[in-house]
Design goal:
heterotrimer, A alpha/beta, B mainly alpha, C alpha/beta, B: mainly alpha, elongated, C: alpha/beta, 7-stranded mixed sheet, 3-stranded antiparallel sheet
């Protein structure tokens, strides 16, 4: 990862020096193990703050929405697909963004690691040979990096940026023969009562902080439907119907747009696995329209274009 | 989402197809009535903590 | 009976006995994390926890609470009258609350129980509750209670304090409420006072040594509010913030709420729900104007309220107990310890365009 960091700093410094961008959005080292903080760099001499490692899971496309200045952004595969989505949704002008493309080696899941050790973690290091070394008070444990990945990264098939102006490294091999939808098929196979119970259980701990929505680059509505007050669509309390309405409707708003970057699950303070909702819609979009979100700036998404041969078996 | 199948219907009806509209409305009403009252996604009065 | 010893059997029996007179709340393991829940049936508190994921504030201040009920059915004589619902006023006991979390109730009380206004909902619940603290032996790396007016064995907000002892616990009654609870639990096996004092002092000192992070708050009161408000670092602090409400909902000292009416047919309730200063809707005016329409204003507000306005208004330190929950759970690693140090050290004379610390 050291080479990635060096290259990102070098590119950021050059872009700022040459005046190609007004600022660069990337990550700086966080104040806790397995946490990095999104940051903005405006001066070439500050570029050395930027870093790259397996804790850069936050989707930086979220910080680009509506940008009017020239921005450089450090982007892994999923981030780049969200940048494409921003461009086709007219949230961003392609000419205003310089994509510093990171061939992604997958992000590590801090919750998985925390759950696999006893005691508080003080330091986590990634080695060049694909290990993650976790140290804490009185223990040291080494994991294969592959065991520690975020769920979405483990099944990712687009690790390389789809648009890229400044490559940080040569492309990494993409994963093939990945089954992205095993759990979705299991849910599809449930009876409606089982499915309701499954979702009731899934949302039981939601505290409605909306971290999932706010971490999502797709959720840029000026006023989200849950925040509308005239009229008010959704109750504000802890009623299970209101909680469900929020999660389901939010997922539907992401249909054909979600890149499965995993920012929602990563941000959730109570560990709700809400990606099953967006992946169900992703699966439908793929099966019905052959569509994967954010792969090209030249194609309109299926939900904003009509084709005479669109599937319509559900219409009587 | 756990909504029973049969509560949601889609139809494509042209503004010129009034008889189809009437027939579909009839069919949907009957189908949903046959399922009985909806029990899911019903908000009850908030509980006193 | 100031100090008692409790062996494991007496502990378990005592929790059982308490349930006949109290609604008992305690830490329960759910998945990887602990939360405070009501202990019903045979449930017992799981004391092997470091810090619960959510604070226990909901025992006194539920996330969603009914204030009134009403009907608009004009055939009923009490239509259009707001009526208080019948409440469960059984005494409550929180077993195993951490000293920092217990202190948070005293901080919040300044808001809900002031000479000008007494909040009946919060106060009723608070007064019905007995807080049995559990001395903290292994503070987390994110803990900074000793910089926030508390300590791992602080008793300020507690009615009784329990600490580990070979083969069980030792307990100290701090208030009459705490003494009454210990009697009700049958924890009356008196302990030699000198031995107990030494045990409590040793435990407290050992835990305090493990707090590694200190935060400077000494200069916050003397800084002019407007200097801090206009400080150049807010843009940088706020940049990464995604404006979710995680920090405010997890925080034991965040008390803001929103009042809502909900009705179905003619029957309705008025509820109050936790709200968050991170949400734009929190300050949206009916006119459409929003005095805190920008993210940076909302982020600044949260820190200014906790670390400056509260300090100035009450003169009792910061509105934070150093539990570290916001630090641990912030999705983008915004760290109140760094922000506090920055505010405390801020000097507008020395500030220039590179004032923003980068680490």
């Amino acid at each position: 990862m050291r080479e990635y960091t060096d290259k990102i700093r070098q590119i950021a410094r050059r872009l700022l020096e040459e005046g190609k961008v007004d600022r660069v959005i990337g990550f700086k080292k966080g104040s806790m193990p397995m946490m990095n903080e999104p940051c903005v760099i405006r001066r070439p001499q500050d570029a050395d703050q930027l870093i790259w490692d397996g804790n850069c899971g936050i989707n930086l496309a979220n910080y680009l929405t509506g940008a009017k200045d020239k921005v450089g952004v450090v982007a892994k595969g999923c981030d780049s697909r969200n940048i494409v989505t921003h461009i086709i949704e007219n949230k961003l002008d392609r000419d205003n963004v310089v994509v510093i493309g990171v061939p992604c080696q997958a992000m590590i899941d801090k919750r998985k690691i925390a759950a696999a050790v006893d005691g508080e973690i003080s330091e986590v290091t990634e080695t060049d040979d694909g290990k993650v070394v976790v140290r804490g008070n009185g223990f040291e444990k080494t994991f294969d990096r592959a065991e520690t990945l975020q769920d979405n990264c483990a099944i990712c098939v687009h690790r390389n940026p789809v648009i890229c102006d400044e490559p940080v490294a040569d492309p990494v091999p993409e994963q093939t023969d990945v089954d992205r939808y095993a759990d979705i098929r299991a849910i599809d196979a449930m009876s409606d009562a089982e499915r309701k119970a499954f979702f009731d259980d899934m949302f039981a701990e939601c505290i409605r902080c909306y971290a999932c929505r706010n971490a999502c680059p797709l959720c840029y509505c000026p006023t989200c439907f849950v925040d509308e007050s005239r009229p008010q669509w959704v109750g504000k309390g802890q009623d299970e119907n209101d909680i469900r309405t929020f999660h389901f409707l939010r997922a539907y708003h992401c249909a054909g747009r979600c890149t499965d970057c995993g920012a929602c699950e990563r941000a959730c303070p109570v560990g709700i696995k809400m990606r099953v909702l967006t992946r169900k819609l992703e699966k439908d979009c793929k099966e019905l329209y052959g569509w994967e979100a954010g792969m090209s700036v030249d194609q309109r998404p299926p939900l904003d274009a009509y084709k005479p041969n669109d599937p319509d078996a559900f219409i009587k | 989402m756990g909504l029973e199948p049969g509560r949601l219907h889609f139809s494509w009806i042209s503004s010129a197809e009034s008889t189809k509209f009437a027939r579909v409305a009839q069919e949907v009403t009957e189908a949903v009535k046959a399922l009985g009252p909806n029990r899911h996604f019903l908000k009850e009065k908030a509980k006193v903590a | 009976m100031k100090f008692v010893k409790i062996d494991e059997k007496q502990w378990a029996e005592g929790i059982g006995k308490l349930k006949s007179g109290y609604r008992v709340f305690g830490p329960v393991k759910e998945g990887k994390d602990h939360e405070f829940r009501e202990l019903t049936g045979d449930a017992s508190p799981d004391m092997a926890f470091s810090n619960t994921r959510l604070s226990p504030k909901s025992v006194v201040y539920p996330q969603s609470e009914v204030m009134f009920e009403y009907t608009t059915d004009e055939s009923r004589p009490d239509h259009h009258i707001l009526k208080e619902p019948r409440r469960d006023d059984t005494p409550r006991a929180v077993i195993g609350i951490r000293p920092c979390d217990a202190l948070s109730f005293l901080l919040v009380r300044r808001n809900f129980d002031s000479p000008e206004y007494k909040d009946p909902y919060w106060l009723r619940n608070y007064e019905a509750t007995t807080f049995v603290g559990y001395g903290c032996n292994d503070p987390c790396a994110t803990c900074f209670c000793t910089s926030a007016g508390s300590a791992p064995h602080d008793t300020q907000g507690l009615d009784a304090l329990v600490v580990d002892r070979d083969g069980g616990y030792a307990a100290k009654a701090i208030t009459e409420k705490g003494e009454a609870l210990m009697k009700a639990a049958g924890w009356t096996d008196a302990m030699d006072e000198a031995e107990a004092e030494a045990l409590f002092a040793d435990r407290a000192a050992a835990a305090e040594k493990k707090i590694t992070r200190q935060v400077a708050t000494d200069k916050l009161a003397e800084k002019p509010s407007m200097d801090l408000y206009d400080a150049p670092f807010w843009e940088d602090v706020a940049f990464s913030c995604i404006n979710c409400g995680t920090c405010t909902y997890l925080c034991p000292t965040c008390w803001c709420f929103d009042i809502q009416d909900e009705c179905r047919g003619c029957e309705g309730v008025r509820t109050r729900n936790w709200d968050s200063c991170m949400a734009p809707l929190f300050t949206a005016h009916g006119s459409g104007h929003n005095p805190r329409g920008e993210k940076v204003q909302r982020v600044r507000q949260r820190f200014m309220h906790k670390l400056k306005y509260y300090v100035d208004k009450y003169g009792e330190g910061i509105q934070c107990v150093g539990c570290g929950r916001c630090v641990r759970s912030c999705p983008v690693n915004i760290d109140i310890r760094k922000v506090c140090d920055m505010m405390n050290a801020y000097d507008p004379e020395a500030a220039n365009d590179c004032a923003c610390p980068t680490t």
